[in-house]
DNA sequence: AAATATTTTTAGACAAACCTAAATTATTTT
DNA sequence: AAAATAATTTAGGTTTGTCTAAAAATATTT
């Protein structure tokens, strides 16, 4: 694997996160995600095309090549391993890990990452519940279900939160919901699709449709 | 503390390492250390002068300002803490830690470094025996003595090796000498200033003057 | 299908960090 | 102290990644 600049890596990672079902991403979406201008995106796509990391034809969007996907998974691996390290070993809070991992993920020594993985005991999920790709870029499909789709009175464990904005994290922390929280859905209100959920040893609480759509859980055994 | 580019940080660190008794460094020395060209050094010195990190007058060398010294110690702190982490936690060998730490040292979160320090148990020396500045930039003067100056039959512990070239590290590893090795000088040969030294439970070995001048030890209590 | 609006690309500039070659200043030799 | 040598700086150019403003292509309305 060749060496890529921080900027190139950020573009690749952002494309990976934004890609739709068919893998395509538009210039404006990418510019928005990276807080840059569409013209800059076009410039970079030309470069990434030459480096064979994306497929790109002017005016028709772009998508990652196989090479590009491999790189994206490698960067995500680095990011999530560092997040795990920060939370687990350095006792950073959930909300803090992301920003620091954004910097650490660009240190590209393969040996560093593989040894870090080993040191951490080969964790399979980061502190937000997102799966960590292994050293070959294989990623576990976290077969989790959205809270909205969880049957009533079935206990499950929160394993993933898709929106990780500060506002979302604040709300979750207020409701005392985090990765690993065990809960069950007690009632579903058809009017606004809000849910009444029960967390062990706490009074039942209410969850809006919006929130429930962003919380993913795994059925308990 | 403001944020500086990787390049600026590398210049500051290099000046710190090269500085003579009066703190000055020349353009050519710095260009050599950084494997760059003298013209590039001049460009950067103008910039660092504007940022008040160095004192600089054209044609008369330069030296770090107090701000610059503070920054240098911060970068050295990051570097040495990461070296300690790599060696101690990830089991990197002595020779490998430096290159990786060169990248990690530019991740500038203060909280990250202070938490890393705590996680590592506030180590005072890195794996090469160099002292680690504390969070205020205070650095311990390692009051160590060169092997050449160690009195006969006095046991001491290796605490620092000043030349860390691959050739040096190879020789040290062959002679089974490392940081923490306990030894004493048995004889001194005036002809070439070579030493006969004894390491616990090993046959006595010979050390050239050149080598002995690069090994620093602390008297045992 | 023409007109309008939106998206994307091109053209041309800029800052950071580097370079080479030429000019300038400092140092050393004679 | 002049000449020769060495060190340093200036001038002008390159690459990377960004920008703004204008042009071109695509998508949406009417």
Write the layout of secondary structure elements.
Two copies of one chain form a homodimer.
Chain A: H1 6-18, H2 27-33, H3 38-50, E1 54-56, E2 62-64, H4 66-88, H5 97-104, H6 110-119, E3 145-146, E4 156-161, H7 166-174, E5 182-189, E6 194-199, E7 205-207, H8 209-212, E8 215-219
Antiparallel strand pairs in A: 1-2, 3-8, 4-5, 4-8, 5-6, 6-7
Helix pairs in contact in A: 1-4, 2-3, 4-5
Chain B binds a DNA duplex (30 and 30 nucleotides) through residues 5, 7, 26-28, 36-44, 47, 58-60.
Q: Strand percentage of chain A, roughly?
A: 15-25%
Q: What is the subunit arrangement here?
A: homodimer
C-alpha Rg of chain A, in Å?
A: 19 Å
Instruction: Return the string of H and E elements of chain A.
Output: HHHEEHHHEEHEEEHE
Question: Roughly how many Å apart are the termini of chain A?
Answer: 40 Å
What structural class do the secondary elements of chain A suggest? Answer: alpha+beta
- In CATH terms, the superfamily of the domain at 145-219 in chain A is Ferrous iron transport protein A (FeoA)
Annotated CATH architecture of the domain at 145-219 in chain A: Roll
- Poorly predicted regions of chain A: none
Say what the CATH topology of the domain at 145-219 in chain A is. SH3 type barrels
Major sheet strand order of chain A: 3-8-4-5-6-7
The number of distinct β-strands of chain A equals 8
Query: What sort of overall outline of chain A do the alpha carbons produce when their principal axes are compared?
Result: globular
Largest sheet of chain A: 6 strands, antiparallel
**Pair with the most extensive interface?**
A-B, 19 and 19 residues
